[in-house]
Amino acid sequence: IALYETLEKLGATPILVCGRPIAQAFEERFRVYEIHVGAHDRREYEVQHALNAFRPDAVISSERPGRAADGGYYNMRGVNISAQTACFDNFMNLSHCQTIGIGDGGNEIGMGKVAAALEELNIVPSTTTCDELIVTDVSNWGAYGIISFLSIWNQRDFLGENEPLEILRYISELGSVDGVTRINQLTEDGLDVSEGESVLLELRQVCG
Fold it and tell me: Which DSSP string do the residues of 12-43 spell out, in sequence order?
């Protein structure tokens, strides 16, 4: 959401690609392109349709599960979540623009770029790659990293305009749960919001 709003301020037209129920929850406030959840035979069609319609300058995948070697989708605990996951991988594979992947666990889209480094970990890694991979402790912070560059390039403190707590309150009211605790609470991967705010402050200091 922070990156979406920053891109809008720069005059871009960001579009959130997601499946239900997230697509339905966000459609009143954001531009959303809905893709179907679970296995189906129209995966390539819905992606090609979107690419033809929107002609994106970049495709960014943040914290999205990526396809594993067996074709399934898994969370960080190795649990098969294929039935609850929409396939975003083809946006990376079929687009002709730059692709960026953000992840923190090894199972996300883009992690195929560092497949060798994940072989010894107790996870089912994603094999989907990307042009540029951002690995962070918390995926949200990877988006802050992109916003940092946008701030430097445009001489504007976009990071200072971001309100992590307000974003957490917004998605919590929609029924979100923390990815680690699995509880509806104002945290990021089990961490208090102050941790993310501290990262934002450090990035602002680095950016000047």
Answer: ----EEE-TTHHHHHTTTS-EEE--BSS-TTH
**Residue 183 exposed, middle or buried by CB count within 10 Å (0-12, 13-18, 19+):** exposed
Regarding pTM above 0.90, the answer is yes
* pLDDT (average), residues 28-56: 96
- What are the CA-CA distances from residue 55 to residues 82, 90, 181, 201 (Å)? 28, 15, 38, 35
Q: Which residue has the tokens 């605790």?
A: 181
SS3 call for 62: strand
Closest CA to 200 of 146, 155, 126, 124: 146
Q: Which two tokens stand for residue 180?
A: 């680690």
Summarised one tens digit per residue, pLDDT across range 136-187 is 999 999 999 999 999 999 999 999 999 999 999 999 999 999 988 999 999 9
